[in-house]
């Protein structure tokens, strides 16, 4: 589990292509290295990855084909920067919201509005079905950052970013057309799907009752 509070950024040093997967080697910040072992979980742009090699501050991670397909990690090249966060401990402060590191879809940046101390960024999810889980003032994970949803339309949504978020994460350098990873808040997803299921059951019961009433008498 992760908190959505990005602990730093890491440069992709090298990418090794292998059959049906690839290995990313990144330079982790020194403050994230203590206690790091093989098998540890580290979030890259919100995607939970497992440490497969440690050589000083050069840390390796294997990415399977499905991860490369669903997330924006498949777009990375050496020199690119990713948001990173180590797995949360029980004693950690949850400054954002609990995140699993399981990316649901990606979204394209379709509009950027900048003012003196604020930046409003609009996103259009690749999978439009995910919009039903994105609610005004709800939680969402964008490239591993816990954010509050601003306005929502039928096909897109926005977030408002303070200078601290822009300075500490990769969102400060994003441009129109860039893709970001989206993790839906699991609590919101559970509530929406439960309501849908209950309404569907009620509708089915009403239809069955109506059909029984119009059955011809023998």
UniProtKB/TrEMBL annotation:
| CDD domains membership | Riboflavin_synthase_like
The keyword Repeat is assigned to this record: yes
List, alphabetically, the InterPro entries matched: ATP_synth_asu-like_sf (IPR023366), Lumazine-bd (IPR001783), Lumazine-bd_dom (IPR026017), Riboflavin_synthase-like_b-brl (IPR017938)
* Chain ranges of the Lumazine-binding domain: 1-97, 98-195
**EC number(s)?**
2.5.1.9
Which keywords has UniProt assigned to this entry? Answer: Repeat, Riboflavin biosynthesis
Q: Name one Pfam family in it.
A: Lum_binding
Which reaction equation describes what this protein catalyses? Answer: 2 6,7-dimethyl-8-(1-D-ribityl)lumazine + H(+) = 5-amino-6-(D-ribitylamino)uracil + riboflavin
Give the enzyme's main class according to its UniProt record, as a single word.
transferase
Ranges in a coiled coil: none
The protein's job, in short, is: Catalyzes the dismutation of two molecules of 6,7-dimethyl-8-ribityllumazine, resulting in the formation of riboflavin and 5-amino-6-(D-ribitylamino)uracil.
| Matching NCBIfam families | PRK09289.1 (NF006767), PRK13020.1 (NF009566), ribE (TIGR00187)
Q: Which PANTHER family match?
A: RIBOFLAVIN SYNTHASE, RIBOFLAVIN SYNTHASE ALPHA CHAIN
List the protein's name. Answer: Riboflavin synthase
The species this protein belongs to is: Erwinia aeris
């Amino acid at each position: 589990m992760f908190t959505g509070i990005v602990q730093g950024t890491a440069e992709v040093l090298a990418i090794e292509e292998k059959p049906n997967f690839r290995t990313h080697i990144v330079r982790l910040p020194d403050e994230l290295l203590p206690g790091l072992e093989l098998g540890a979980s580290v979030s890259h742009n919100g995607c939970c990855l497992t440490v497969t090699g440690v050589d000083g501050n050069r840390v390796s991670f294997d990415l399977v084909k499905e991860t490369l397909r669903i997330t924006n990690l498949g777009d990375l090249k050496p020199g690119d920067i990713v948001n990173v966060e180590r797995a949360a401990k029980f004693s950690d402060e949850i400054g954002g919201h609990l995140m699993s590191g399981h990316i649901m879809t990606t979204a394209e940046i379709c509009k950027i509005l900048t003012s003196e101390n604020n930046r409003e960024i609009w996103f259009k999810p690749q999978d439009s079905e995910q919009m039903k889980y994105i609610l005004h003032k709800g939680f969402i994970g964008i490239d591993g950052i816990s954010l509050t949803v601003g306005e929502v339309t039928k096909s897109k949504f926005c977030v408002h970013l303070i200078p601290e978020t822009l300075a500490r994460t990769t969102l400060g350098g994003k441009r129109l057309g860039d893709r970001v990873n989206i993790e839906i808040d699991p609590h919101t997803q559970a509530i929406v799907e439960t309501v849908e299921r209950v309404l569907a059951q009620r509708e089915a019961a009403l239809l069955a009752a109506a059909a029984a009433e119009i059955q011809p008498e023998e």
